[in-house]
Every structure is written in C-alpha cells, then in structure tokens.
Amino acid sequence: MATTTSRETMFQSTTVAPKGLQQMSSHTDDTTESESMDFSQAFSQTSRHGNNSTSELKADVKSISTHSERETSAQLHQTNSLPGTLRFDQCKLYGRDEHIAKLYNALFQVNERDNSTIEFVLISGPSGSGKTAVATSIQQDVERSPSGVYLQGKFDLSVQKEPYTAFATALGDLCCRASDILGRAAFERFQEETIKNLDSLELHLLHGIIPSMGLIAPEKEFRADFRSSIKMGDQKNRLHYGFLKFIRVASAAFCPLVFFLDDLQWADLSSLDLLQVLISYQENTNLMVIGTYRSNEVNPDLSKMIEDLRLEQQDKKAPQQLSSQGFNRQSFLSKKGSMSTLLSPSEELGTNVTLTELSLGNLTAKEVKCITMDVLSLTDEAVAAPLAQILQQRTHGNPNFLRTLITVLYDDSLLSFNVETMKWSWDLDEVEKNSFAYNVVDLGRRAIQRNASKEMHHLLLCVACLGTICKEKYIRLVWKMSSTGDTSESLLQQLLKQAVKQMFLEQIGTSQFRYCHDAVKEAVISLIPQDEFDALRQRIGGILFEELTEEELEAMLFLVADLLHNSDRMDSKLSQLLLRAAEKAKGVSAFSSASFYASYGIKRMQNMCQGDGHLGVKLHSIAAEAERCLGNLTQAKLLCEAIIGQNCVPNIEKMQAHKILIDMLWNEEEDFEISLNYSLDCMGETIDCHFPRGKAGQALGALRAIKYMKMEKSIPSVKEINALPQMTDTSRLFGMELMSMATYSAFFAGKPTLMLMLLTRRIQWSFQYGFHASMAPAYATMASAFMHALGDWERGRKMAKVAVQIVERAKELGVAGNSEQEVLYRLHFLVNPWTQPARSLSNQLIDGYKTCMLHGDVQCAFNVIGVYIFNHLLSGKELNDLEANVQSYKPQMAALKYDKFGFFIGLVGQAALNLMGRTEHTTMIDGIDENLNRQLWHQAQFVKRFLFAHFGEYKAGAQNSIKVGNEWLKSYPGVYFGYDAFHQAICLYGEARQIAQKQGNSCAPTLSTSQLPLYRKHAYKNHALIDSWVKKGGPNHVHHLSILDAERAALLSCTQMSHDACNLYEKAVLDSIDGGFVNHAALTEERFADYLWGVDARAEGIHHLENAIKLFSEWGALKKVEQLRERHAIWKVNDSLAKSQKDIMVRQRRQSLRSNH
After folding, report:
1. Which of 46, 233, 760, 1130 could form a disulfide with 52 if both were Cys (CB 3.0 to 4.6 A apart)?
2. Alpha carbons 916 and 348: distance in angstroms, whole number
3. Cα–chain-centroid distance for residue 988?
4. DSSP 3-state assignment of 486?
5. What confidence tens digit (pLDDT) does each residue in 19-69 have?
C-alpha cells in the first residue's frame, strides 16, 4: 500500500503493516500527542531555568527529542500496531528543532508582549520539505489555551484567480467555531463588538469574502444607491479597513489568534495586498501570522513583499531573544482574550511587524538514519546505516521524497519483514539499483498506478478540479456525470474510503475532502496528458454550470469560471458567466481577478456587437476599470477606446468608457485642462450640449448664470422640489454626470466662469428635464460662490437650505448616490462655519463623517473630519481632547491610504502638543518643506500663523502674513479662512504696536519703524474684512471684531492710557467667553495686559496677565502658561523695584522740603 504525506504532519499518523499481517493490523489516523507535548515540555524547562538563550532552548528541545528516540522501542509495545509495520507515526520532525524553537519563540512574544507588535513567520523550502508540519507544530498548544484559535487557509494553483481563498477558509472556520471556543457570554460580547465596530458598508463587503460572516454579524440595512456611488479605490480601502477592524475585534477576543496561510506562492494579488495590510496594522493584539511558500516558485508580487519587509526589519534592532522568563506554558495556557484592548488604539501604523524567516532545507544523513530506524523500528545503528545512506543519496534528504521512496520499496518487496525472525530484511544492491531510477514525481505516479483503480483515478481527477476543499455532494455530481462505467453510490463511498485510507485524500468533518498533499494532486494530474485534463476541467465546469442551483452557482462562481474560462466555446452564455465572475471580483476589490475574467469573457465573444452589444461593452468597461485600479493606465485607455471606436455601440452606452477616461485624466494624470476639454467635447458630440470656449463667451455666460440664480424661481420650495418628476432620459442623465465631472475640472483648472455656467446648467436641466440628485451639490457649491465671491450671504444661506432639501428627496427616491456626502462636505467646509456658531458644529461634523464613511466616500469623510479637528482647535475646546482626536483618526487615515489627510490633521496635533508643552518647540512644525503639495504647504503656514499669534511671535507672524497670507486668503475660503484673517491681524497689530512704542520712546528712526505703515496697512485690511463678515451675520467673528477694535484703539494710544481701548478690551473678553472661545479670551487678556504695562498701568497689567494665565490653563496650553508665568515673575519684580524707587524719590523730596523750610 502506498502512502503520502499528510498536510498536517510529515511522518506522523501512518502505519503500514506487512502484507501478511495487514488484515490483522488496525490503521489509525490519530496524531501522537506526545510529540507536541515534548516541545511544550522543553519550553516549560526554560521557564524553570530562568534566563535562557535561543541556543539553550534548542538544546532543550533536542535533548527531549533524543530522549524520545531512545524510548521508541518501548513506545512500540504500548501501541496497538503489530511488529513489522512501517511506523511513520514514530518519526519526529527531525532536523526541525531550531525552526520549531523559533516558532515557539514568536508565539511566546505574542503571548507575553504588552504592545501590539505582530509576529509574522515566513517558512520557505522546496516542495515536501515539511513546511506545513513545522507550521502546525504549535497548533495544539495554541488551541489548548482558553480562548486560543489556530486558523488555516490554503492557496491553490488550480483556483489561483479566485480571490481571498485562504482568508475565506480561515475566517469562515473562525465564524463557525467562535461560539464553541469562547462560550456563550464571551461569544455574545464578540458579536456585539463586531456589530458595533463595523458599519453596514464594511459588513456588506466582508460578507462578500467570508461565507460564514452571518454567524457573527448579519448584514445591516444597506442602500443600493450607496454601492453605485463608491469609488473603486475607496471600496478596496474600505474592505481592507473593515477586515482590519474585524481582526482587531477578533484578536482582542481570542488569545492568541494565529493565522496560517499555506502556499503563498499561489496567492492572488488581492490576497497579498490584504496580507500586507494585516501585518502592518498596529491595533491588532495577540496576533501571529504564519505563511509558507515554496522557495523555488516565488512569484514577483510575493518576492517584492518579502523584500520590503526585510528592508523594514533592517531599520530595527536585532531580533528579540526569548524572554528571561522563558516560555511559561501555564501562563500561556491560562491567558484569555480581553475586549478591553479595543479601548487603547496605537499611534503608529506600518512599523509594528516582527519578521521571522525559517528556511527548511534537506535532512542530513544522520537525520535520514534516525527516520529509517524509527520507521523500521530498528535499534542497531550499524544495521540501519547502509540502507539510510542509499535513501539519503537518492532523495537528497527531502522528507516527502524519503517517505514515498520507503513506501514504494516496501510495496515492491525490496523491504520485507520476516514474521518468523521478527526482523526486516533488504538487499542493498537491489535497493540501490531500483531506487536509482526513481524521482519524486515517478514515485507518486507509481504509488497511484499500483494502488488506484481506473475508477479511483477518475475520482481523484474530479476532486482535483473542485478546488482546495470540496463537498461530497459536488464530488458525487461531477463523478457520476463524467464517468462512463459504474456510478453507483456504493462504489463512490468505497472509493472515497479507500482514497482516505491510502492517504490520497483526507476527510474534513463529515462531508468534505481535500488532497493530503499537493504532490499527490500533481502526480494524479500528471498521469494523463495536459490536453485531456484541460478537457476534463471544461467538462466538469459545464456540468456545474448546468446543474447547480442559482444559489450554489453564486457560491462556486469563481471555481466554475476558472474551469470554463479557457473553453473553445464562442457564445454569449459563457461570456455572461465570466462577466458575473468579473463583477463579483470587482465587488470585493479583487481587480486582478476581475480583469482576468473580463478579458477571457471578451475573448469568448466573436465581436463587441455580438447580440445586443451590452455584454461586450460591460466586459470592456469592467476590464478597463480593473486595469486602471491596477495602475495599468495604457491598457485601460485601450479598452475604453475600443468601446468608443465601435459604430455599432450607441453613444449612451459609451458613457462608462468616457467617464473612465475623464477620471484617469483628472485623478492619475492630474491634467485638469485636458480633462475639462474632453468633457466638453464629449457633451457636444454625444448629447449636443455645448459651452463657449473663449474667455469672452464664458464671461458672458457666467453673467447670465448669476442673473438666473438671483431670480426667485431658482430658489424652489420643498413642495416644488417634491413635485419634480424624476429624470429618465438616458442622454440627459449622461449629460448630468459629464457636467458634474467637468465642474470639478473647471474648478481645479482655474475656470470659475465656466464652473458657474456648468453649475447653473445642471440646476436648469433638473427643472426642465426632471429631478436629478446632482443638483444638490450644484446648489451647495453655488451657495459658497454667492457667499464668498459675490458677498451675498443671504442668497447663499437659501441655496444651502435648498441643497439639503434636495438630498432628502433623493434619499426618499433611492437615487442619492454620492450627492449627500458632497453636499455635507461643501456646506461644512464653505458655508456652515460662516453661518452657524462654531461650538454647535461638532455633532454635525461627526454625523457628516459617519455618513460619508457609510457611503464609502473616504476622501469626503476625511475632509469633514479635518474640518472637525480644525474647528476643535480654533473654537477653544480643551487641547487634551483635541490631541486624543488626532491620535484616533490619524491611524485610520494611514490604514485607508489617505496620508495627505493624516499630515493635515497631524499639523493640528503638533500645534496642540506645542501649546500643551509636550514638545520642546513653540512655533516650530516638523515636516514642512517646499516639496509639499501647495495646498498642504499653505495649511502648514496657517498653523504656524496660529502659533505665532498665540506665542506672541508677532514679527514672524506679520512677515509671514504679508508674504504668503494673502495668497491663502484668496485661494481657500473655507472654515480656516476667517480665523486666519484674525490671526494675521493679531500678529500685524502686535508687531505694529511694539514698533510704535519703540518709536514713541526714541527720536531716532530705525529700520523697524519704516515697516510700521506696512504692518498697519495690512492689519487694517484684515480688520475691515472681518468687519464685513460680522455685518453679514457671521456668528464666529463677532468676538474677533471686538478684539481687533481694541487692538486698533491700543495701537493709536500705545504711549498713554486710553479708556476707550480699556473698555474695548473688556468687551472683547466678554464676547469671547460668551461665544465659548476660551483661547481667544486668554489671548485678549494677554494683549490687554501688554497694553496696560506699556502705558505704565502696571498693577492692572499684572492683574490681566494673571487672568490670561488662568484662561490658558483652562484651555490646556501649559507651555503658554509657563511662558506667561516667567513674564509675570519679571513684572512683579520690576513693579516692586519701581514702587521702591518711587518711595525713595518721595522721601527725598520731603526731606529736601524740610531742609529748605
């Protein structure tokens, strides 16, 4: 009987009885528990011995293994196997002590380490070297801990284009077993945390890749129009982020959580991306990831990932050795998961993985001899040595080859057991002569040919076509319908039992099967010509396609598409199947697989216009989108042009191709001018919608647009909005989308007049041709244009209200798409900060962020949360809370690959830390250089001006304001715009007053005094701007105006006391406190104190400085408080000296008067 290697163990669990005794022997599939215990005992010894190095640890493991070897004979008598059997179950994992020690060391780090470093162990080696056996050597100890779980998933060459197969298997297993592992109470908590942490979009995406996710968290209600509005890049990022959040919850509940991903060399690109994200996410605790791959079959994507990890590790310290406490097995087995770890998010991302690489080579001659002695139950090394030498020479020490060769020698009677002498015998010459002709592939074939009947071979071929793990009912279906002989149920059951017994297959549960080893599968396939196997795959694919129910076909869609994709059939039915597979792959962000299926669907069609043409256009469109997401822009462009160039395809059906090309121009190439012209050309050619191209025509069109938007009919009531019929004309729908895209391009291309025309045309079309959701963001954008460009705040408020009403109608109709989040962002960024009190915006902004994330619009969500963070800083809320918010959202931005926004709020975080005294700096901000994106650079300058104003570095702030401040004010009229005008004015007034005071105390003009008119001019300009906003009803600038009024009065009376200035400062403090701006109240008190000190009202100046200290303390600006206390101490001393000098002068004057008298 031939045997092959189990996926779980290399030599364990196999007993081959002599031919004369096989009927008497009882075959067992039980793994010897003592072997796992031996290694656990070794690590327990390290706990008792105290400080142990890795080398000492290996010695402990080796000593126990050697001790076990000496006891092999005694153990034989304790088993129920007869003498003379091939005892593969007595073999240890020879030659792998060091590797297993390192694996346990990594597991120890997961168990003991307080931080959230992820242990990633990569095991490489040629096929048959025992990678899986080493990887699973820790499984028993992991699963003996109270809440430990060991998850396994395998990638398969035959279904390489099916995305996430190993993750789906592993996480599906977790979902099925979670309740049993955790117990009822802990499982319910796990469910609650999963549902609480994942929103409906993330759950929807996870359900697409994890079949059993519903056992943990059922899908939440999910609007269909959400899905259609999600950008493909955002969808991938949200899938990754949802996956990470689920693993974070799972790794808090299960301790430890071990992922074993087998055969990474066959992993699809999407799975490698997901793996990279998994090991880079620092908020996962108790997590260990093990991956195996064939060292001689590494694909480029896997190779790059490994090289990147190696480079990252080079920047770290040397790998940590085993803790001085050793591997405390009792501690490990008693440790439980804790959901409380969810409450402590980490600050960094992408630097927390510890890589351990284990390279498995061939066994040494000594190790081959030990295996030979164990398998044949020999005790005399001298007897075993000659045979072992031949085995080592023929197999080069490859464990799988060695095992297979011993079994074949036994089957060929070259190894025989004499029952009378109770000894094994062999002819060395015959063994050497016969074994020389074999290689591992030949041996596998011989084993199958010798032990597998024709029916068995066909059954094994059927299983080879059904993926990594296949259900018995599908084996039954394809075997019966593809066989020509006996297809009875009894024969099938007999064949399955024989396949399991002979170690071709292994049974999982009650009704699933898989190959014991890839080598067996490869040998089975190699026994027939490749073209015959390809034909069988297509036949089985056809059977599944025709016979499966719709629900079953959906579950096995990728497998069926893989079986049929290379078929010679040229029909739309097959292309339709491949289109379904492409759409499903696209739906789970597996863009490489989506492109693969769509491309083969295209090949199966005679031409794009086959049938009604819809199918060809859809296949080309999906392929183009997928290629774009993969970064293959040239190929994406060619696919789009193939659609556009077909005369048989109606213009309206070319819409998606046009949109992809415009998006590419806009996002990837950032050529807004060309993108705009392409959009305008497309509208003119396809729907006869034209816009002027010349400046004069656009200026005239903009005036007409403004005139229309000023008409009363352009502000509809709710009743009028609800009365509008839906737009249904496909050409008009296409036009609205094109105009939306052109509006963005016009804005970034610097074409404001054309943008106004596009916005107005969208609104006009909605009234003329029917309701369309994109009129909502058009109204929101118009609201900001009227407020900031035309100065008509009242009209802007009305338009903003209309935008919100349109969104509500669109949601009722189920056509909102991405209009809701676009409106939210525009209003929160450009309108609400000017029309609503800052403190009332926080809850609205958080709700807006959640809505955008729910829609899948990550960019919009982070824009809104950026407004929230800046609003927190500017409105004077506690700095400690602000810093916590920054640390909460920044890792999320990094995880979703929006580093630009992470930098954006990181600026605010640095400002808060500077103010709180958690850095050594006051106004210095790290990471600012001229290479920054211009918008980010201006945002950094804004933060610096904020710090200049609050830390009293007025000269630097004034110079910065004059140099770059005006550009900021002109370009970015958002939430920061008004506050920045105020901080610029404070710096300008502050420096102007200091110069004026020096000028008043000196007759000689200086270089600084020549700057006074310039500073004063710019201060007055910003002052007038804020005054205009207050007159228009801006609630957040009332106190700004009060402060600047006081500053102006103080500048005009900087050398002598002015009661008007004092009254204005008192009013400014009250206005700031009434508005909730404690930061500006503190700043005003400080400026008031400086003014009083300068006009020699020192006692009052000290009093107001003490008020400033109190208010800055309340805000949390401890660095500023420290700065003011130093000034306070100096003032107190100077005030005492002045009083003393004054008293002396009075006494001297009195004494002089007495003398004269």
Report:
1. 46
2. 21
3. 44
4. coil
5. 433 333 333 333 333 333 343 343 333 333 333 444 443 444 344 344 334
Distance in Å from the first CA to the final CA of the chain: 137
Instruction: Give the Cα separation of 844 and 24 in Å (integer).
Output: 78
The reported pTM is 0.76
Instruction: Please name which of 207, 272, 262, 240 lies closest in space to residue 469, comparing C-alpha atoms.
Output: 262
Written as six digits, the tokens of 317 are 């310290």
User: Is it the case that residue 340 has pLDDT exceeding 60?
Assistant: no
Neighbour count for residue 479 (Cβ, 10 Å): 23
CA dihedral 572, 574, 575, 576 (to 10 degrees): 90
For the CA atoms of 89, 95, 97, 98, the dihedral, rounded to the nearest 10 degrees, stands at: -160
Q: Long-range contacts made by residues 840-848, C-beta under 8 angstroms, separation at least 24?
A: 841/868, 841/871, 842/868, 842/871, 842/872, 842/877, 845/871, 848/821, 848/824
CA-based nearest residue to 148, from 119, 185, 123, 180? 180
- In the numeric block, the tokens 């806009």 are attached to 666
Identify whether the C-beta of residue 100 lies closer than 8 Å to the C-beta of residue 137.
Answer: yes
Enumerate the β-bridge partners of residue 122.
291, 357
d(CA 173, CA 213): 10
737-772 burial, b at 16+ Cβ within 10 Å, e below that, comes to: bbbbbbbbbbbebebebbbbbbbbbbbbbbeebbbb
In the three-class reduction of DSSP (H, G, I as helix; E, B as strand; rest coil), residue 354 is classed as strand
Between β-strands 86-87 and 15-16, what pairing exists: parallel, antiparallel or unpaired?
antiparallel
Q: pLDDT for 668-716, tens place per residue?
A: 767 889 999 999 999 998 888 999 999 999 999 999 999 999 999 999 9
Three-state SS letters, 876-892: CCCHHHHHHHHHHHHHH
The helices-and-strands tally (H runs, E runs) of the chain is 54, 12
